[in-house]
Amino acid sequence: MLTSPERKHIILAFAHRGEAKCFLNELDFKPINALSDSYLLDSENERLSLVITGEGKENAMIHLSYTLAILKERFPKDHFLVHNLGVCGHLQDSPIKFELGEIVNVRTVYAQKNNNEMEFKSFSTVPNGNNNNKKDSKNQSDLISTSERILSPDSSHHLSNFAPLVDREAWAMAYACHKQDTPFMCTKIISDFADGEVCVRVKEKSEEWSDELLRFFLNQEKQISSALPTNKEILTDLHITISQERSLNNLMRALEIKGHSLEQILEKCNYSQLLAEEIRPKEKTKELLKRMADLLNPLEKELRDQLEEATGCLQKVGFKVRFDQGHENDVVHLTTSLENHENINNLIAGLESFDYLKFKEILRGRDV
Amino acid sequence: MFSRIFVEKSVGHLPQISVIKERFSNTPVTEIDAIEDIFGRVKKPYLQKRSNLQLFLGKKKGTLVKEAPDAYGLAGEPHYYFIHAYNCIYECEYCYLQGYFQSPDIVLFLNHDEIAIEIESVIKRHPDQTVWFHAGEFSDSLALSHLTGELPFYFELFKRNPQAKLELRTKSANIKELKKLSALENVITSFSLSPQNRIKATDLKTPSLKHRLSAMRELQNLGHPVAIHLDPIIHEDNFLETYKGLFDELNEYLDLTSLAYVSMGVVRFTSKVFHQVKKNYPHSELLAAEFHSSFDGKVRYPRPFRLWLLGKIKQLALQSGLREEQIYLCME
Ligand code: SF4
Question: Does A43 share its domain with A85?
């Protein structure tokens, strides 16, 4: 009855080939057809892709968006997560201090605009087993993707009011992920103090940093996978439309919050009896959703039953009954069609036996 | 408590700055030109208040005293609120401050003298009426009062203006500073209360019910007017028993007949805040509640439930000894 059809798929996103060097050397990646600078490692339970975007926000945004779109089309059932790994600079005016070579999980990514102002939009990464809200501002820190490679002392000072770390691409990658509803994670190794020394160091130390990042990634891979949404369990016995699936998931989640397990929910909704009933599969799904909604909202069911009873005399004579949304007014809307004179008398009899005051009392919160 | 303190140059000389710096002597302090250069410039995730809460100290510019919305306080009298802080150290899952400022960082405005001038000018505009002023529209009025030190100033102001009333609204039990002051009839401390199980489930980081009740009792004994907000009322399976228990505790700790007022309101959200609740607290019980999108775009229980909840609580209140005229229902 319950199946888990999807696979986890982590896309490792790097700006520079040097940062990815050890990943490409040590792991068995194969180039992806028709996608430049992109590689794939396929295993039974999980897929790993690697993409090198090039430097700067534009390159990162364009290249990652394209790769994500193509991979999502090729592997439509995979659960994707993008993990950006690479080097970053540390703003020394920031009160949070880091050492060169330290590895940091990025918590929130900000950006500097071309005119040096801050971009308002920010993106949060998903927690990777180290909870993002943990009181440890050292291992979890914020980062700004800057528009310039080398920062003036003034600019560096201003940026340090917002975050202690800088790079050139993470924000754009996070934005691309946001647009494609894909979780984003970011891990950086501190390579420099954003003072212009970076280019020299990258050449000298890129292999060492790439090795450190690979080591970190392999150690953390389990937690990283756990950041992906768990495979959804779906009820395969039912004929279910996409919108019904959404409702089903929402109801399941809400009932779980209220402490019901899946088994309890199915039992309380008489699921096996419902399956045995001789009604159309579509009707079964509808009925299950109704039963689940009643289980979740007992007060609403009670109110519905009371209103049903109070307006029964109207419905019996052929009125269609409708109420204001949320019952915000003491109003019942009636519609009907007249076919002959006898109808008129029936409708009048129905209206006469309707107890409006009782109906109003129900809407005014009489014991529900 | 704070990961960093930003101090506007314009307030650097104030004695309160030294008090705060001393209190947080290990917290880095940065001098800035204006709060708005940093605060609200980027969208800072709300839950970073747990790990990276910053404090901004400066002057409030623009309007300092604003007319309160209709549903505020007792009807028929003019209500205003003044803004001396943004954001709160607590974390109620239903809090409307979620996403309001695009940053959870605490801002404390220290230009109380300018706020006082505006308050007095509003009072003058209503010579024949009792004007209410509410502190804490965007923050908790007492939670940080031991740091901010403004209470004596406002007590003096309202002593000079006995025809006006000041409401200090809080979920804290921080009455240290209030206790040092002589009670004034027109300064009312109002406590927002819920049954303890609800406080535990949704009013994260707020003091326990018992702590708040003890604080209220102390204030009552010192002659300070005390009021209660039973707001937000949230339905749960054994709702009647839990609220009955709450009224029993209220009776045990307080003289209910001398409460200035008890207001009651049922939980409601703007759709924007409800979206934030979903994002920030995906496992919150609030997300399994029987809410609907209402006529005015707000998310709330359908009207029959709201009226039923209010009716039941009012009945319990009357049974506990409160008088009809002490109770007002917030029908917002
Ligand atoms: S005490 Fe008030 S302001 Fe503070 S978090 Fe709770 S609801 Fe929000």
Answer: yes
Domain boundary among A250, A270, A296: A296
- Identify whether residues A39 and A168 lie together within a single domain: yes
**pLDDT tens track, chain B, 332 positions:** 899 999 999 999 999 999 999 999 999 999 999 999 999 999 999 999 999 999 999 999 999 999 987 766 666 789 999 999 999 999 999 999 997 999 999 999 999 999 999 999 999 999 999 999 999 789 999 999 999 999 999 999 999 999 999 999 999 999 999 999 999 999 999 999 999 999 999 999 999 999 999 999 999 999 999 999 999 999 988 999 999 999 999 999 999 999 999 999 999 999 999 999 999 999 999 999 989 888 888 999 999 999 999 999 999 999 999 999 999 998 77
A155 inside domain: yes
- Do A265 and A161 lie in one domain? The reply is no
* Residue located nearest, by CA, to atom 7 of ligand 1: B95
The one-letter amino acid at A250? N
A212, A164: one domain: yes
Cβ-based neighbour number of residue B157 at 10 Å: 22
3-state helix, strand, coil in chain B (%, to 5): 35, 20, 40
Residues A251 and A276 in one domain: yes
CATH code, A107:
3.40.50.1580
Number of domains comprising chain A: 3
**How many domains in chain B?**
1
The answer to whether A325 touches B295, Cβ cutoff 8 Å, is yes
Question: What ipTM did this prediction achieve?
Answer: 0.81
Q: Are residues A305 and A323 in the same domain?
A: yes
The shortest C-alpha distance from B291 to chain A (Å) reads 9
Out of A296, A316, A338, pick the residue that ends a domain: A296
Q: What are phi and psi of B133, to 5 degrees?
A: -120, 130
- Tally DSSP H helices, then E strands, for chain A: 13, 14
Residue A73 sits in the same domain as residue A208: yes
The verdict on a CB contact (< 8 Å) between A140 and B51 is yes
Question: How many C-beta atoms surround the C-beta of residue A313 within 10 A?
Answer: 16
* Strand pairing report for B203-204 and B91-92: antiparallel
User: Ligand 1 centre and the CA of B90: distance in Å?
Assistant: 6
Ligand 1 pocket: which of B94, B140, B234 to mutate (most atoms within 8 A of CB): B140
Q: Is the separation of the CB atoms in B143 and B90 below 8 Å? A: yes
CATH code of B202's domain: 3.80.30.30
Cβ contact A95–B30 (<8 Å): yes
Do the chains contact at A108 and B290, CB–CB below 8 Å? Answer: no
- Is residue A52 within 8 A of residue A16, CB to CB? The reply is yes
Residues with CB under 6 A from ligand 1: B 88, 90-92, 95, 97, 140, 171
Q: Is B308 within 8 Å of A366 when comparing Cβ atoms?
A: yes
Find the domain containing A39 and state its range: 8-227
The three-class DSSP label of residue B122 is: helix
Inside any domain, residue A111: yes
Domain assignment of residue A211, yes or no: yes
Tell whether A85 is covered by a domain: yes
Closest in B41, B52, B287 to A257, CB measured: B287
Q: Which domain holds residue B180?
A: 4-329
Q: The whole model's pTM is what?
A: 0.86
Of A155, A153, A188, A189, the C-alpha closest to A171 is A188
A18 and A161, same domain (yes or no): yes
Burial class (CB in 10 A: 0-12, 13-18, 19+), A302: middle
